Structure formats: structure tokens, C-alpha cells
């Protein structure tokens, strides 16, 4: 992974409390076991649950650093809700977003919602302890690709927004159906197959939905449905 940080991780006397939040116990415990085998001074605990349960666990345990999967038990993008809750509560926990793939929009929204680093399942696991240590030191863990994406958009970036309640009334029945399918984690291709229309049609629907609700991304749409 190409990255930008202050150098190699250092070893200190302080134990770094690390929380792992995944959608499955198997996934969380695999990461927990691997981190416990590394030479860093980590105190690791892992769990699997939904977004609200995850946030409550963070409030109770107060980890220094939290590795949060973008998909939790209550949906494929609900890890972003935890990021938002940590940011809004001014928590001292430093979050790292764990993405399945480094999709451009997901990388952007992870940083917009408060992530201090983005790590993907395609990255070498050997880099994860260094990522955790860098974030714990107050640095931002970001790859060269992610920097390029962020610089491209920095001049037109606006804060992630959640539309006001009642916005669904502005949508047609078909648009509401598409919102529901997006919230379930379906991609444009899957939605087009479900509704027997082209992907181009789905993209047009989403553009109209974003305009009506004052949004610009799928994550905003998912957060809006979760807030209703």
C-alpha cells in the first residue's frame, strides 16, 4: 500500500486499546487474533453487531483506536453511521474505516464523516498495525490514491448532510422503492435487475432523488433512511 505518514511505527510503553467492529464474529475475531500476535503493544477486543450497538460499545469501552467495517449487521454501509455518531459525540476514539474495496465515493465519504484512516481488505495485513499506530499518534493514514481523490474534490467538497424528516414525501413510489433498495446495500446493477430497467435509468432516478433530498451520495441517502 502506498501511504503518507510520518514514518515507521514506534514502540511505546502505552498500551493502545484497539476495538474491532465487524458484521460477523468470525471476521472480528480473525483480525483480533492477528493483531494480538504482532509485536505492538495492543490491547485488542472485538465484537460484531449493528451500528447502534457498536457505538454504545465504544462509549462503554473508550478504545483509543477503532477499526470499523463499512458493513455491520444492520446493513452494508452502516459503519458510516458509527463514524457520524463518534464525530457528533466528540468522542476521543480515533476511527479507521475498513472498506471491502477502495471505491472513490466511499473513500471520500469515510473521510468526510470523520475517519482518521481508510484501510481496505485488499491491503497487506502487515500494514494494519502501522496504520493503527499512526492514527493513535494523531496522524492521518491515507494512500497516494486517496490523496489524489481528496485533492481532486477539495475545492467543491461540502459537509455530509442529512435531509430533514419528511423528505420521502417528495419522492414518487418508484423513487421510494429505489431508496429502500439502496439502503439494503444493493448496487445499481442489482437494482436494475430487480426492477427490470437499465443501469442508466437507475442512475437517472438516483440523480433525481439526490436533487429532491439535497444530497450528493449513496452514504447520505443511507444515513437519511437510518435517521427516519
List keywords for this structure.
228 residues, alpha/beta, 5-stranded parallel sheet, two-stranded antiparallel sheet, elongated
Overall, the morphology is elongated
Radius of gyration based on Cα positions: 18 Å
Fraction in helix: 40-55%
Biggest sheet architecture: 5 strands, parallel
Strand order of the largest sheet: 3-2-4-5-6
Uncertain runs are: 1-12
Query: In percent, how much strand structure appears in the residues?
Result: 5-15%
Mean pLDDT: 86
Distance between the termini: 38 Å
Give the structural class.
alpha/beta
Tally of strands: 7
Number of helices: 10
H-E string: EEHEHEHEHEHEHHHHH
What do these coordinates show?
This protein is of the alpha/beta class. 46% of the residues lie in helices and 14% in strands. The chain contains 10 helices and 7 strands. The model is unreliable at 1-12 (pLDDT under 50).
Helices and strands in order, then pairings?
Blueprint: E1 3-4, E2 16-22, H1 25-37, E3 42-48, H2 51-61, E4 65-69, H3 79-88, E5 94-99, H4 104-112, E6 117-120, H5 128-136, E7 142-143, H6 144-153, H7 173-183, H8 188-195, H9 199-213, H10 218-227
Helix pairs in contact: 2-3, 7-10, 8-9
Brief account:
The protein has 228 residues and is α/β, with parallel strands linked by helices. The chain has helices spanning 25-37, 51-61, 79-88, 104-112, 128-136, 144-153, 173-183, 188-195, 199-213, 218-227; strands at residues 3-4, 16-22, 42-48, 65-69, 94-99, 117-120, 142-143.
Amino acid at each position: 500500500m502506498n501511504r503518507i505518514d510520518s514514518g515507521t511505527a514506534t514502540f511505546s510503553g502505552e498500551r493502545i486499546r484497539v476495538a474491532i467492529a465487524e458484521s460477523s464474529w468470525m471476521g472480528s475475531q480473525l483480525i483480533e487474533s492477528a493483531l494480538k500476535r504482532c509485536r505492538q503493544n495492543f490491547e485488542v477486543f472485538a465484537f460484531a453487531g449493528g451500528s447502534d450497538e457498536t457505538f454504545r460499545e465504544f462509549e462503554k469501552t473508550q478504545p483509543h483506536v477503532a477499526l470499523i467495517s463499512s458493513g455491520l449487521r444492520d446493513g452494508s454501509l452502516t459503519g458510516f453511521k458509527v463514524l457520524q455518531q463518534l464525530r457528533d459525540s466528540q468522542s476521543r476514539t480515533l476511527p479507521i474505516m475498513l472498506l471491502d474495496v477502495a471505491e472513490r465515493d466511499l473513500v471520500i465519504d469515510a473521510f468526510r464523516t470523520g475517519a482518521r484512516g481508510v484501510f481496505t481488505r485488499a491491503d497487506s495485513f502487515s500494514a494494519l498495525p502501522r496504520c493503527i499506530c499512526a492514527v493513535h499518534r494523531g496522524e492521518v493514514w491515507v494512500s497516494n490514491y486517496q490523496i489524489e481523490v481528496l485533492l481532486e474534490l477539495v475545492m467543491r467538497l461540502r459537509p455530509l448532510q442529512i435531509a430533514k424528516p419528511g423528505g420521502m414525501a417528495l419522492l414518487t413510489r418508484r423513487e421510494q422503492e429505489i431508496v429502500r433498495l439502496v439502503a439494503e446495500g444493493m448496487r445499481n446493477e442489482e437494482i436494475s435487475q430487480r426492477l427490470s430497467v437499465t443501469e442508466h435509468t437507475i442512475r437517472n432516478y438516483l440523480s433525481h432523488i439526490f436533487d429532491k433530498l439535497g444530497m450528493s451520495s449513496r452514504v447520505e441517502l443511507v444515513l437519511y433512511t437510518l435517521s427516519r
